[in-house]
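Below is one such record:
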Amino acid sequence: MLKKVLFTSALALGLSAAPASAAVIFSDNFNTENGGTPMLNYAGFANFTISDGSVDLIGSGPGGTSFNFLPGNGLYVDLDGSTSDAGLMLQDSIMLGAGNYVFEFDLAGSQRGSTETVQTFLYVNGSPLLGPYVFTRNSADPFSTQSISFSILGGGTVGISFSFQNVGAPGDNVGALLDNVRLSTVPEPGSMLLLAMAGAGFIARRRRAL
């Protein structure tokens, strides 16, 4: 008897809250960046690349304090740097296999009188696949957790990353504030709103049963 095993590389993406049982596999609170010292137009992040503009590393750390709009949160990122051009902040790719995941981050308002909008994209193997996911924060909004849940189906692994970019008023230096980025596994899918399925081909393998 012939048995065909079909592997489908696909991605299902949705929005949901993270269950309590989620296990963190990546986290970054930015507190150790630049030796704990704030820096305007900072591009030396350990886990992110900045392009097409700039972001600021602000807040308070052991190395100093600068523009600490929300005390008690250590260092965090102003997503519109001091060059009048908000940068694209892209997370370094993480290889993931089949499973359910949730990507979370804390987002606050600018604290400087403006309403700011942040766009987030999901990248698969270096290419933007889904988005933008749009998050709007009023000026005085404190840090609150935003989440994007997704599932990877099939065999093998894919490189997953996310980007952040402030899309407020052009030409200013005021952006939403970002902190506590984390990626977790989710043992149970729970309630998930599936938004898209992106097929990426299949590999068929035959195995002869004796």
Remarks:
- The chain has one domain: 2-203.
- The chain is about 0% helix and 50% strand.
- Residues 1-19, 189-210 have pLDDT under 50 and may be disordered.
